[in-house]
């Protein structure tokens, strides 16, 4: 309980805290979200909202993205600090949104404009991200 009270204080710190007045913290019904934790947040003007009981698929899109980033990227790396984690996530987001094939889109990615100009007869090139962990293949302009 003391640990969660400290976490609540850290989240609401004036300069470094992530949560600001008027925001909502959505959380599950785990026991660590004790009344003292919620009280500190409420005193700072942050509303806490617990998810409904037995709702594992409440946010399937977010859960699918978390699974993708964990399986394709984070589980294959040793993250040493927060700046490194932020850099890795920025690179993965760029790959995810502009290069990675999505099954729901007929496996057609949305490449960056400089890549979209490629032609069917151009040389196949590879763009690497994160030291070759993530790869994107495209055709060069002929």
Give me a quick take on this structure:
This protein has five helices and four strands. With 142 residues, the protein is α+β, with helices and mostly antiparallel strands.
Terminal CA distance reads: 64 Å
What oligomeric arrangement do these chains adopt?
single chain
Beta strands, count: 4
| Widest β-sheet, arrangement of strands | 1-2
Strand content: 5-15%
Q: What ranges have pLDDT less than 50 throughout 5 or more consecutive residues?
A: none
Rounded radius of gyration (Å): 21 Å
* Chain-averaged pLDDT: 82
Note the overall shape.
elongated
Number of domains: 2
The biggest beta sheet reads:
2 strands, parallel
- Helix percentage range: 25-40%
The SSE order reads: HEHEHHHEE
Number of helices: 5
**Which structural class do the helices and strands define?**
alpha+beta
Describe it.
This protein is of the alpha+beta class. The protein folds into two domains: 2-50; 60-139, no CATH class. 37% of the residues lie in helices and 14% in strands. It is built from five helices and four strands, in the order αβαβαααββ. The strands form two sheets. A two-stranded parallel sheet has the order 1-2. A two-stranded antiparallel sheet has the order 3-4. Helix 2 (35-43) links the parallel strand 1 and strand 2 (47-50). Helix 1 (2-11) packs parallel to helix 2 (35-43). The chain is elongated and about 65 Å long.
């Amino acid at each position: 309980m003391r640990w969660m009270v400290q976490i609540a204080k850290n989240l609401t710190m004036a300069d470094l805290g992530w949560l600001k007045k008027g925001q909502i913290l959505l959380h599950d019904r785990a026991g660590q979200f004790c009344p003292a934790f919620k009280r500190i947040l409420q005193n700072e003007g942050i509303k806490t909202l617990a998810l409904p009981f037995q709702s594992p698929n409440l946010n399937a899109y977010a859960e699918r993205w978390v699974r993708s980033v964990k399986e394709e990227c984070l589980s294959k790396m040793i993250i040493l600090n927060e700046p490194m984690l932020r850099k890795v996530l920025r690179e993965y987001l760029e790959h995810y949104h502009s290069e990675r094939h999505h099954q729901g889109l007929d496996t057609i990615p949305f490449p960056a404009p400089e890549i979209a100009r490629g032609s069917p007869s151009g040389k196949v090139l590879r763009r690497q991200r994160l030291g070759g962990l993530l790869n994107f293949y495209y055709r060069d302009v002929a």
